[in-house]
TrEMBL record:
PANTHER family membership: LIPID-A-DISACCHARIDE SYNTHASE, LIPID-A-DISACCHARIDE SYNTHASE, MITOCHONDRIAL-RELATED
Similarity comment: Belongs to the LpxB family.
Catalytic activity: a lipid X + a UDP-2-N,3-O-bis[(3R)-3-hydroxyacyl]-alpha-D-glucosamine = a lipid A disaccharide + UDP + H(+)
Domain of life assignment: Bacteria
Keyword Glycosyltransferase: yes
Organism: Rhodanobacter caeni
Classification via HAMAP family: LpxB
Role this protein plays: Condensation of UDP-2,3-diacylglucosamine and 2,3-diacylglucosamine-1-phosphate to form lipid A disaccharide, a precursor of lipid A, a phosphorylated glycolipid that anchors the lipopolysaccharide to the outer membrane of the cell.
Taxon lineage: Bacteria, Pseudomonadati, Pseudomonadota, Gammaproteobacteria, Lysobacterales
Protein keywords: Glycosyltransferase, Lipid A biosynthesis, Lipid biosynthesis, Lipid metabolism, Transferase
Name of the protein described by the UniProt record: Lipid-A-disaccharide synthase
SUPFAM superfamilies associated with the record: UDP-Glycosyltransferase/glycogen phosphorylase
Pathway: Bacterial outer membrane biogenesis; LPS lipid A biosynthesis
Length: 400
């Protein structure tokens, strides 16, 4: 980058969450570099910010050992094509957004060729082999972390990592408005409400959907007047849920199926029953007590166990953050793999419904964790991330 030439910034995003992160980052970077060119792989949100996407973001939306293996030849072809075009374009910085299995390999090849690289969203080094941090440093000149405990892990391996805050912490108020959320969803203010989120991907829903719906039916049979709301992440998931729900009750006790509106559903609820993943962080930021269950594909689970890849005994983000912050108790019941049954999920949910003191303690813990994710200043996560990227650009400019 020089004084007259605006920077070219490449971003590579995989999945919907990466598209949102990328769009926010582009918006923040454009405030610094109004004439910058943004290129790479991104979705509709990034493109609305003036991003030039060379490939469809859905080409990277693959997860799990077995699932990735099925698509490996196509992913390798895509990686070769992308690397070649980036080497030809030679952007001032390349930012891989999440999707570590794909992006870190791309970043390493580009870093070896002399390009500046940033990895935005640290892989879960606290859960999947900490020594990966050193390998990530061979791919990325700088790692942008969403969680405050992550930079210290990288520092032990000599890797430049910055905590920029979590974007979701900026989107949720410190005190959620339950009344407004129920009005928006036309739910009665006095009724007990359970939000049910059994997964945002069809593959998750095929493993978890019926289990979670059966669990909610068990809870409904015990708690008078319970209303169940199910936000569907996308039209495909909505259709799958509609088919699953067609077998059940059609009276007032029938679950209310929503198009999106996950945040509203969580804030309207007294309790959330959900699949492990980013949604647990959203429920935490909504300050709603929750029960979490999850199952991965059996082969993926056996491979992970056989290779001793799991280095943690807890899996949900609120529990991991609570342990990192030194809180005395883990706030979220976790029912994983063989323990993720309708009966066990229902029992854990009913226990939490019946224990108001426990729910109060959980809300207090979530308030503490929300503040920790916001960082110590009033800036938003995207602005901190943009500042960390700009620092690399300006350093290179000053050195040139």
């Amino acid at each position: 980058m020089n004084d007259t030439q605006p920077p070219t910034i490449a971003l590579i995003a995989g999945e919907d969450s990466g598209d949102q992160l990328g769009a926010d980052l582009i918006e923040a970077l454009r405030r610094r570099y109004p004439q910058a060119r943004f290129v790479g792989i991104g979705g509709a949100r990034m493109q609305r910010q003036g991003f030039e996407s060379w490939h469809d973001i859905r080409e990277l939306s693959v997860m799990g050992f077995v699932e990735v293996l099925k698509h490996l030849p196509r992913l390798l072809r895509l990686r070769r094509t992308l690397v070649a075009r980036l080497l030809q374009t030679r952007p001032d910085v390349v930012i891989g957004i999440d999707a570590p299995d794909f992006n870190l390999a791309v970043e390493r090849r580009l870093k070896e060729a002399g390009l500046r690289t940033v990895h935005y969203v640290s892989p879960s080094v606290w859960a999947w082999r900490e020594k990966r941090a050193a390998n990530i440093g061979r791919s990325a000149d700088r790692v942008l972390c969403l969680f405050p405990m992550e930079p210290a892990i990288y520092a032990r391996h000599g890797v430049d990592a910055r905590f920029v805050g979590h974007p979701l912490a900026d989107r949720f108020p410190l005190v959620a408005d339950r009344v407004a959320a129920r009005e928006a969803l036309q739910l009665p203010q006095e009724a007990p409400v359970l939000a049910l989120l059994p997964g945002s991907r069809p593959s998750e829903l095929s493993r978890l959907g019926q289990i979670f719906i059966d669990a909610a039916q068990r809870v409904t049979a015990v708690i008078p007047g319970l209303r169940v709301v199910i936000p569907a992440a996308n039209p495909q998931v909505h259709g799958m849920l509609k088919t699953m729900l067609a077998k059940g009750a059609r009276d007032e006790s029938a679950p209310l199926l929503l198009d999106g509106q996950a945040h509203e559903a969580m804030m309207a609820a007294d309790l959330v029953l959900l699949a492990s993943g980013t949604a647990t962080l959203e429920a935490m930021l909504a300050k709603r007590p929750m029960v979490v269950g999850y199952r991965v594909a059996p082969m993926s689970y056996r491979i992970a166990r056989a290779l001793n890849m799991l280095k943690t005994d807890i899996f949900t983000l609120p529990n991991i953050l609570a342990r990192a912050e030194g809180l005395p108790e883990l706030p979220v019941p976790e029912l994983m793999q063989d323990d993720c049954t309708a009966a066990k999920l229902a029992d854990a949910t009913l226990a939490l419904f019946r224990d108001s003191e426990r729910r109060g303690a959980v809300v207090a813990a979530f308030e503490h964790l929300h503040q920790a994710l916001r960082g110590n200043d009033e800036k938003h996560a995207a602005d901190r991330a943009a500042a960390a990227v700009a620092e690399l650009l300006e350093h290179d400019h000053a050195r040139a």
